[in-house]
Every structure is written in C-alpha cells, then in structure tokens.
C-alpha cells in the first residue's frame, strides 16, 4: 500500500513531467553549431501538510464534471482534495474534465484506494482523456503548459463506499505556481490564440542558468515551437538524442525567421530519466 508521501510524489511527477529540465544545445546560425549544455533532471517534490486523521468518514459524493476549483500548486498535486467548487466565471485554477469509477477489485478481492493498482488506473485514465477534451494536435498539448492532475477519495472515504476518481486540467505558470484558467477550455488547443495564452515559453535561452520554463502569457524571451519525436521504446542514448533534433529544430526555426540566413534556435533532448517517465521527444525553441 502506498503511503501519502509516495502518492503525492507520483501525482506531482506525472502532472509536471514536461517541466523538468532537458539537455539542450543552441544554434546561432544556419550551420547549427552551438554550445552544448547538459541540464540534470530533477523530480518535483511537494510536502503534504500535516492533518489529523479522522476517526470516521462518510462516502464523499461523486464530483461534478465541469466543476471549477481555486487550487494552489500543492493542492493540485495532492492525491485527495477537500476544495469546494467555485463559479467557473470567477477566478479558478482547475477544471474537472472527467469523472470515473475506480476498479478496486483484483482477482475477486478488494484493494485499497491508495494501492498501486488503483493509483495506476487513475494515472493512466486521466492523461489519456485530456487530449480529447482540449482538442488540437498531440503536439499542441506537448507545447502547452496545460496538465492533467487527478484525485481519489481518502482511504476513510473509500472504506465508507466512495469509488470515484476526478480528472482536472491545470495550467502551470512556472515551477510551483499555477496560472488562472480563463474562458472555455473544451477544444482550447484548437484555437488560434491557444499558444499565446497557454503555450510553453522560457525566461532565457534553454540550457542557460537563467532559463525557467513558464507559461507564454507571462514574461518570457524564448518559445517552444516544435517537437522532435523518437521511434522505438529504448532510450537512444545521449549522442543520438542530441543529434536527432539538430536538423528538425534548425528547419523549424528557419521557417519562422525573418532572415533565413541569420537566426537563433535551441534544442532540448530528453534525458534517460525523462524517457523512462514517458517523455520520448525533444523540444525546439526560438527567441520570442
């Protein structure tokens, strides 16, 4: 059975996988030559706040789909929640896009809500259901700061009969901070203004000391514009991962440049740790 610290860690890592630093290199001209910067990947962490364990609990009611919530970062990556729905027309940072029923039976036996089997069900279902809700292409989602987070009942609420899970979408403004959600979110990534509002940007050139991944509606100087997808299930190694994006990122930057002979670009490739976490693609960047 997973402890609460482990459940929080898994939720945070899944929600913010794409915000981890990748390895990167930059190109200053059409030659594609540039300095190489290796950025070490580090998993995001949160510390759950201490709270008294209730001695009794009732079955928490099934959440309402399309409800909105005002969550901070720590609350968004926690495994359970007590937040009350807010008016979606007002300030909010999370919106429910799917509600489902937990499968808590294995080989004819009930398992706990915080078991690996149940938690894996939710960790698979919620990310899989997000693209259909947001619309647009898979690449548009990869290039955005919109993420899936999920919640289940507490162990006590599950023991009392609660068997639901809730999938919410959030927008990460920067590490440890959420951005407000505005307007209708269904199909948002298919709209022309999606990248300006929810796109992935940076505070400096990727791979440099001043680089932080931020939402494009905030202050930034670089923008992620394309992805480099790898084939195969095994990590290709640093050299192949680095080399694979040079041509594609240079071409993507040239296509957007006002001067095809003088432009800058940067490429981030996935680390082995990120690959194991499911991030099997790199990112192309240009100044913005």
Automatic annotation (TrEMBL):
<dbReference type="InterPro" id="IPR026004">
    <property type="entry name" value="Septum_form"/>
</dbReference>
<feature type="domain" description="Septum formation-related">
    <location>
        <begin position="152"/>
        <end position="281"/>
    </location>
</feature>
<feature type="region of interest" description="Disordered">
    <location>
        <begin position="29"/>
        <end position="63"/>
    </location>
</feature>
<protein>
    <submittedName>
        <fullName>Septum formation family protein</fullName>
    </submittedName>
</protein>
<feature type="compositionally biased region" description="Low complexity">
    <location>
        <begin position="32"/>
        <end position="61"/>
    </location>
</feature>
<dbReference type="Pfam" id="PF13845">
    <property type="entry name" value="Septum_form"/>
</dbReference>
<keyword id="KW-0732">Signal</keyword>
<feature type="signal peptide">
    <location>
        <begin position="1"/>
        <end position="26"/>
    </location>
</feature>
